[in-house]
């Protein structure tokens, strides 16, 4: 444990309390509720990595970036960037973070497909 762990634990506890007291009512399926609880339970570890500067990319996500009431993403759950409203080359709007290479669907995070090298 590092010196930041207590701070991370306190922040994780607050996020867990927020999920349980406010956001859980918007999650309908039992499997989705279990998944949300599991993600929040791992937040102390992820917050500690973020505070220590060990956050290496899209392997750790901040669940509070998702607005459960409106079922939408507020910002990138990986880097925190608010620049998540994107437009494809064909003109279609989508949510995603080009910096982290992730697509943001309602309640779901996917890696963006990388273009094939060598044409």
What is the overall pLDDT average?
77
* Total DSSP helices: 3
Helix content: 25-40%
Determine the strand fraction and express it as a percent band: 15-25%
- Helix/strand/pairing category: alpha+beta
Characterize the main sheet. Answer: 4 strands, antiparallel
Number of strands: 6
What series of H and E elements makes up the topology? HHHEEEEEE
User: What is the gyration radius calculated from CA atoms?
Assistant: 16 Å
Assign an overall shape: globular
Sequence of strands across the biggest β-sheet: 3-4-5-6
Uncertain segments are none
Q: How far is it from the N-terminal to the C-terminal residue, by CA?
A: 47 Å
**Domains, number:** 1
Overview of this structure, please?
This protein has 119 residues and is of the alpha+beta class. The chain has one domain. It contains three helices and six strands; from the N terminus they run αααββββββ. The strands form two sheets. The chain has a four-stranded antiparallel β-sheet with strand order 3-4-5-6, with no helix packed on it. The chain has a two-stranded antiparallel sheet with strand order 1-2. Strand 3 and strand 4 form a beta hairpin. The protein starts with a helix and ends in an 8-residue tail after the last strand.
Name a few traits of the molecule.
single chain; 119 residues; alpha+beta; four-stranded antiparallel β-sheet; two-stranded antiparallel sheet; 3 helices
């Amino acid at each position: 444990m590092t010196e930041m762990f207590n701070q991370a634990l306190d922040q994780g506890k607050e996020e867990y309390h927020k999920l349980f007291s406010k956001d859980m009512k918007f999650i309908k399926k039992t499997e989705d509720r279990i998944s949300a609880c599991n993600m929040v339970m791992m937040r102390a570890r992820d917050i500690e990595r973020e505070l220590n500067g060990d956050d290496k990319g899209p392997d750790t996500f901040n669940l509070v970036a998702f607005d459960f009431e409106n079922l939408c993403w507020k910002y990138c759950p990986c880097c925190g960037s608010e620049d998540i409203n994107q437009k494809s080359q064909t003109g279609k709007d989508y949510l995603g973070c080009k910096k982290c290479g992730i697509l943001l669907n309602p309640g779901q995070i996917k890696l963006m497909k990388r273009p094939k090298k060598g044409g």
